[in-house]
Amino acid sequence: MTQGSPAAPGRIPALNWQDARRCTIQLRYSDLDAMGHINNARYAEYLEVARMDLSAALGIRDVDDLSVLARLELDYVGELRLGQEVVIESLVERVGRTSWVVVSRFVADGVPCAFARSVQVSVDEAHAPRVLPPEFAQRVASVRVRP
Q1: pLDDT tens track for 37-61
Q2: What separation in angstroms does the CA of 77 have from each of 6, 11, 98, 104, 127?
Q3: What is the pTM of this model?
């Protein structure tokens, strides 16, 4: 993709993004790769920042969210460049017994340019899966994916 080109249609799901938690990402010069756009590895770092922001906004404390990243999918459909306003919008797609799934889209200067899905597994001190707290699903209800 070239700078300023629109994202590929149909590659980013049409969800209730208006309900998403939005986290503005500060791009840094050190995030650039040799081609002059944001290195693909940085996207995972940005998603971690957005997940921590989501947790804080929902009142999920660290002790409520002892979790590990079990899976991360990223679909790149446009590039990020230094100087763009980048916002990550996040919705909770599913809450299971021991895990929760977050879907996110990267929006650069108002244009969706990447989509991510991450699975977090709640763990205990020994890093074994543990059941999410009973109120967890209720806490994330405001940012759930709706049909």
Answers
A1: 999 999 999 999 999 999 999 988 7
A2: 9, 7, 31, 13, 35
A3: 0.89
**Sign of the alpha-carbon dihedral angle for 123, 128, 132, 134:** negative
Measure CA 103 to chain center: 6
Q: In this structure, what token pair is assigned to residue 79?
A: 């590039």
Contact between 113 and 75 under an 8 Å Cβ cutoff? The reply is no
Q: What is the token pair recorded at 53?
A: 């922001």
Is 79 in contact with 16 (CB distance < 8 Å)?
Answer: no
**pLDDT for residue 5 is more than 60:** no
How many angstroms separate the CA atoms of 6 and 3, rounded?
A: 9
